[in-house]
Amino acid sequence: MFFHIFLERNMLLHPRHFGPHLRDKLIAKLMKDIEGTCSGRHGFVVAITGVEDIGKGLIREGTGFVTFPVKYKCVVFRPFKGEILEAVVTMVNKMGFFAEAGPVQIFVSNHLIPDDMEFQSGDVPNYTTSDGSVKIQKESEVRLKIIGTRVDATEIFCIGTIKDDFLGVINDPGAAS
Amino acid sequence: MSSFEPFNRLVRLAARAFYDDITMKGDNQPKTGRGDNRGMAVVVLDALTRRQWVREEDLAKALKLHSKQLRRTLRFFEEEKLVTREHRKETAKGVKIYNAAIAATADGQQPVKEGDEKNKIHTHSYCCLDYAQIYDVVRYRLHRMKKKLKDELDSRNTIQQYICPNCGKRYSAFDALQLVSMIDEYFHCENCNGELIAESDKFAVEEMGDGDDNARRRRREKLRDMLQKMEEQLKPLMTQLARVKDLAVPEFGGLLAWEARVQATARVIGDSNASDSKSSLGQGYGGTPMPFLGETRVEVALPGMDVKEEDTGLDTKSASMKVLPPWMIKKGMVLTKEQRGEVKAGIETAQSLYTTDEKKPGAEKEEGKNIQDEYLKAYYAALVKRQEEQEAASRKMQEEGETYKASAAEFSNGIGELTDRQVGMKSKRENDENDNVYWEDSTSTVSGNVGETFKLADLNAQPEASGDDEEDIDWEEG
Ligand SMILES: [Zn+2]
């Protein structure tokens, strides 16, 4: 799920940036530092949409670095248990398949794939129904449900299932091309 | 009428299935004795099936409940989406409009009280059942219950666990990313590079803790058991749902619309033969009297009609509703106490008088006598008017008896750890506390017949139950 929230951070800025473009430098650094990172509480920071407030800088003794408390607004993405996501399959093996929804990695183990789909090894490993009408392989787009999340400092890993109503392949790359 | 009864039955079944055990906890419960009011929810819902839009004060009065208590219950049902409520500020005039509407549905039933005819503006709350929504809510609830159990049984929504056959190290699906190997299609152990195998039906950590295999198997068995019990015990409810599926859902509309319509209807027809022609107006509103009042005659025919309708419609299932199926009787045998509840609402009141006398002949007797005097007055007033309706009402009671018995038997050893309990007993206690003389007009007046009805409805009727009853009646008449 996406959220548009305010966050705060103390930015450490090198004295060489002190000058007419200090503010721009600060924001550029903020974007570089924050965008694409992940926190367990808020999820992935997708984009910073604005800087609300930059507080008074505090000079660090000895180094000359200055810390600015910066309040900014950003879009974050955090997967939740029970959430339905659409994801692109990145890898298929006998144990299940991996998929990505933006920055989130999702693993769907084979017992959470419908029982009528069987694993087929080969050049393009895939899961296929017995009549061959539905096929999950690399680059397939699937709709899945998150049943568990694990959040690390730098990444969020999810376990998903496609064993429920209206879940599964939503487009078939083999059929489309 | 025919459009209402199936839905009312649905409400009664649902009430006993889901709201039997609900306690309405006040924010500050002053007296400990009043703390336990389980079963009240069922009584309130039942009362609502016999009414349309009703002012909550009147309902409270009719049920001998404190209006605050009733409001709490109704608020709960509003949240549960069973009941629609409307609040409006009104002067005495507004009250009159409502009373007129009530009078139109059943002339003379509501004692229009002239006492507080001032120009003060009061906020009055009205409520009625929302049948369309009830149908959906009950279906959704059943669906969720079933899905939850089934999902857990199929070990859906559980995180797969893996184990290394060589070193015994365990992994969960969360580690999948680190375990993938580029060489083949299996997961490999981080320690010894052995091929991991999936642990079959390991439940998610959060639910199981690290329980051993036995605990897991027990849980599975319990789940399967629960699912089966649920199917079995909620069967009457599901049958009823299936039965009302294709029926037009009765709707009252908003309070204002309802009042207007009721009055219009009454005007067209004229008061005298309202009950005869009302049903011809179609089911929108016309066929919906306060069942125990205006159109009792229509209702007398109902049980028979019902049977016919059911027979033609879903003959396999309807048979099980009218003729008691063996499993129902069997359970009933064991649970005779349970069955004494609802049917005996009438008896209960009479009985409670009797029992107080019996228990404390001295001090309590005086009080009891007062109560009895009051009861006598009310009884005689009602008796004359209702005498010819008794037959009809008793029929209805019998039907309700069956309804209740079905559900009581079903739920006495319910899905969860529902405690064994008698709804009747609860309401009796309620009675005692509030010094209620009678539980509700309709039921108390029928009490003469209840003994009989009871026997008809219940093969296990206890002899002293009817004995008490008769004795009481004798006393009342002498
Ligand atoms: Zn190992």
What does this entry look like structurally?
The complex is a heterodimer of chains A (177) and B (478). Chain A has 177 residues and is mainly β. Chain A has helices at residues 22-34, 173-176, and strands at residues 2-13, 38-39, 43-54, 58-59, 66-77, 84-93, 96-101, 104-109, 117-120, 126-129, 135-136, 141-151, 156-161, 168-171. Chain A has two domains: 2-77, RNA polymerase Rpb7-like, N-terminal domain (Dna Ligase, domain 1); 84-176, OB fold (Dihydrolipoamide Acetyltransferase, E2P) (Beta Barrel), CATH 2.40.50. Chain A contains two helices and 14 strands. The longest helix of chain A has 13 residues, at 22-34. Chain B folds into three domains: 1-151 and 238-298, no CATH class; 152-237, no CATH class; 311-477, no CATH class. Chain B is 59% helix and 6% strand. In chain B, the strands form two sheets. A three-stranded antiparallel β-sheet of chain B has the order 1-3-2, with helices on both faces. In chain B, helix 1 (5-18) packs antiparallel against helix 10 and helix 6 (131-153) packs antiparallel against helix 9. The relative contact order of chain B is 0.12. At the A-B interface, strand 8, strand 12 and strand 13 of A face loops of B. Bound molecules: zinc ion (ZN). Zinc ion (ZN) binds next to loops of chain B.
